[in-house]
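[User] At your convenience, examine this fold.
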Amino acid sequence: MATANKNLSEYDKATIPSAKNFRFGIVVSEWNSEITEGLFNGAMESLLDCGASKNNIIRWNVPGSYELVFGSKKMITTQSVDAVIAIGSVIQGETKHFDFVCSATAQGIKDLNVITDTPVIFCVLTDNTLQQAIDRSGGIHGNKGSEAAIAAIKMAALGN
């Protein structure tokens, strides 16, 4: 989804189910933590704003975005969550590592959505520059974490 002329943090609460009775897992990559912490904060604020209880939100950290798939899988199998938000940030460097991490992470999260009955929301920024990541994790384009939280609420409601 293009972010030009869009604030990722904007949502209409009237169109969103209450998060009051749902349990959420948030798996956060420690790599690029200045970005992932911003995304986490946006997700938490939106979940709480939509009625989720802090006691029903579980956070786990993993080393990097590549590990989000395993962390999300374990969250699903051990924590009885209604939805998982996988938060990461991969910034283009000088090698193909970016391509492999982005592709594997996206495919892995897609696979979890196919093989489990628990939605996993892809909140992994795949930016060309640090500034682009900053702009999407609480900067001029809002916060992709907030957008992911709203998706998690909607998908949790769909599954119940």
Summary: The two ends are 27 Å apart (CA to CA). The helical segments are 33-49, 68-79, 97-115, 130-136, 144-159. The chain has five helices and six strands. The mean pLDDT is 93.
